[in-house]
Design brief:
This protein has 17 helices and six strands. It is mainly alpha-helical. The strands form two sheets. A three-stranded mixed sheet has the order 1-6-5. It has a three-stranded antiparallel sheet with strand order 3-2-4. The longest helix has about 35 residues, at about 100-135. It is globular, with a radius of gyration of 22 Å.
Length: about 400
């Protein structure tokens, strides 16, 4: 079952000629999922054999996870300090100056290696309890069992046509590619194939065990773990099996996982770490371009501006104005940069990737009706279980439209 899930849950496209042409540029730098999965399963098996979490009280589990989060903060702080030493031209001998920090990091990494698997096991257990409370389990156990592993995640090369926003390829790359190597790869692919390309970072990947980026934000962590487990859950059902069949189905998958991940993650924090529970999210109001011209907007809002950018780009591309759309995206990127959002590139591939996560009405998805239909179904569903199980058995956008319309 594990091998089947690994093969099914990795985001790939059929081996057609266009994708193989793209892979001609990436074969030597693609991520090895097979070896990663084997190593991750070894970690999970060893931790399961020890069964250490069962000997800890709820309070001890709570404190251990928070101590691990604090450890990650210390690691990130030390890594930043180390990077600054090697970047500072005033430091004549960075190797000598960084000796104490390197020794500190070595000890912190040792602690992370010891505590990390146990912290993951505790969060897996807590999430399993929340999932069972939501009714998404079999005899009290999630199927598949919730397993995740924090690790440096692969980068993703996203490719879209230039004349329309559509993800035609998502190829996983080695996580240690430098920014220069990423830009060079994008330029080579774009020049050779006349497409839009972008190398992006991802927060999680729904292989099994799922891959989740190391973070010091517990709220974000449990949301992503829940999000990726929903992908595992859907992989055993038509919606997940057909993830790559159409762009609409990809958006249905990602939006469902995003909605469920946020709800389940928030429920976990409320139950086990209530002191960290953030206030309820506030819906972002949408300002039309005309409204922005006629009245002063009190503050810059990233989601609203990105939504409007996508809407305008879609209209330009629909009119065949490709160069104008690309010039506008670069202009908007500079606008975001001036407002504190350090986005390296906004192009068709950017929206092809980010636009599939349409759990918010104001987002990079623009006016895509697919995300709106998924959100509408959640709004009329009495429970999260009802919503997920309705979505899980859909195999086309037509299925979703019929359910939402009541036909």
């Amino acid at each position: 079952m594990l091998l089947v899930m690994v093969m099914l849950s990795k985001t790939t496209l059929p081996g057609n000629d266009p994708v193989e042409r793209i892979r001609a540029f990436t074969r030597n730098i693609e991520f090895d999922y097979i070896n990663w999965t084997i190593d991750a399963l070894k970690v999970k098996f060893n931790q399961s054999a020890l069964n250490t979490d069962c000997y800890l009280t709820n309070e001890q589990q709570h404190n251990l996870v928070l101590n691990f989060i604090d450890l990650i903060i210390r690691i990130q702080t030390a890594e930043t300090e180390l990077e600054n030493i090697y970047s500072n031209p005033a430091v004549e001998n960075p190797d000598e100056s960084s000796g104490s920090i390197k020794r500190e990091l070595s000890e912190l990494y040792r602690q992370r290696e010891l505590l990390g698997p146990l912290a993951e096991t505790i969060i897996q257990s807590q999430l399993s309890q929340v999932v069972a409370d939501e009714g998404l389990s079999f005899i009290g156990q999630p199927v598949p069992p919730i397993l995740y592993h924090s690790t440096p995640l692969p980068l993703a090369l996203i490719v879209s046509p230039r004349d329309v926003i559509r993800q035609d390829a998502d190829i996983s790359l080695l996580p240690d590619l430098t920014i220069d190597q990423s830009i060079e790869l994008e330029n080579r692919v774009e020049k050779a194939l006349d497409v839009s390309a972008l190398v992006v970072e991802v927060g999680g990947i729904g292989v099994y065990p799922t891959m989740v980026m190391q973070t010091s934000d517990l709220n974000w962590l449990v949301e992503v773990v829940a999000h990726e487990w929903i992908h595992n859950y859907l992989t055993l059902r038509p919606l997940g099996l057909n993830y790559d069949t159409t762009p609409e189905l990809r958006t249905m998958n990602e939006t469902t996982a995003s909605i469920a991940g946020k709800e389940i993650g928030r429920a976990l924090i409320a139950r086990f770490y209530p002191e960290l529970l953030p206030p309820p999210p506030v819906e972002t109001p949408l300002q039309t371009p005309q409204a922005q011209e006629n009245e002063e907007v009190s503050a810059f809002n990233f989601q609203r501006e990105m939504h409007l950018t996508r809407v305008i780009v879609d209209k330009l591309l629909a009119a065949g104005k490709i160069e104008e759309a690309e010039e506008f995206m670069e202009k908007q990127r500079l606008f975001f940069w001036e407002n504190g959002y350090r986005i390296r590139k906004i192009n068709q591939a950017y929206f092809a990737f980010h636009g599939a996560y349409a759990d918010e009405p104001v987002s990079a998805a623009g006016e895509d009706p697919v995300g709106a239909a998924v959100r509408q179904l959640r709004a009329v569903s009495p429970t999260l279980k009802v919503f997920i199980n309705k979505m899980a058995w859909m195999s086309s956008y037509e299925d979703l439209k019929k359910v939402v319309s009541g036909k």
